[in-house]
Amino acid sequence: MRLVHLSDLHIGKRVHEFSMLEDQEFILQQILGIVKEEQADGVILAGDIYDKPVPPGEAVRLFDRFLTGLADLEVMVFIISGNHDSPERLAFGAQLMSRRGVHFAPVYDGKVQKLCLRDCYGEAYIWLLPFLKPAVVRHALGEEAESYQEALELAVAHMAVEPGERNLLVAHQFVTGAAQCDSEVSVGGLDQVDASVFDAFDYVALGHLHSPQSVGRECVRYCGTPLKYSFSEAGQEKSVTIVELKEKGNVEIRTIPLTPRRDMRKIRGTYMEVTARSFYEGMDWEDYLQITLTDEEDIPDGMQKLRVIYPNAMRLEYDNKRTRESRQVEEAAEVEAKTELELFQEFYELQNNQPMTSEQEAVVAAIIQELREDRA
What we know:
Layout: E1 2-6, E2 14-15, E3 18-19, H1 21-38, E4 42-46, H2 57-72, E5 76-80, H3 87-90, H4 94-98, E6 102-104, E7 113-119, E8 122-128, H5 134-141, H6 148-157, E9 166-172, E10 174-175, E11 192-193, E12 203-207, E13 213-215, E14 217-222, E15 239-245, E16 251-257, E17 264-269, H7 271-274, H8 277-280, E18 288-293, H9 302-309, E19 313-318, H10 321-336, H11 340-352, H12 358-375
């Protein structure tokens, strides 16, 4: 059984006030070609279909064309809502669309939709778990869930997962230890869950984080965004993840690279250097660019002048003595404003790729208090 794992389309997104709709349409057409060439049995969309809960009309029309293209290829489609989506709006017309093999996860009410696929190895179950917050789980199940970890544990515990069968989960959560980009927001680690929550599943098709990566084990995977949405992603190669479910316990994962209409890149140099023909000749000057100028003095109307050569320049920065000193002052002020506990928490997370537990925080707070008393 061959499945294409996608997530975080963010249709309708704007990056530095540039609409990404043309780029999104280009990449979605490319993905349709991959689905056809791979002869996929299904396509997974693991949340954040749109960039806003109420997407603009042109974004809805683009997604409609993409779904129609998938339905015309006669592949099954499995879609969940992410934290950027409105689950009610996204699931509108779900019963009608299911007749063409397009399946939307319903609004979470304590039950998780399960769909059965069959191949030469037997049955495989696709579970559609939309993005969950603790309050949603408390309301749906009537049980206490204060943290995201507790909420996901409860939600999975209420799913009748048969351990002897092949089970694939589609989810949209932040798994502890995963790498973030600037275009993602985490609530100080409070929204993280441990990968062990998903131990019952042969493959976990995750959405939410924009970098392609596996977390905890190879089969707990973020496919990443199909396009770059921040300059922290400039060095990444975007791709789609191809998942092949064979017999129980045998899952093969590979990626197929995507080629954007316009890349997102960084260039650097003095104003005279980056505007010299020898610098940009042969370069795709329509790419989205972050330009860092190293001149000691700001260039008057610098962005407007640079856009004569680079029309899609998104961001202009300066790296010189003045800006470096300014950054040092700002960083020092930020450090001075933080408590000893906050500084230790940051150090711990940097070293361990996960936040401290409340118990650990209590122990460290007690030690800090003892040291303060000793100094007094």
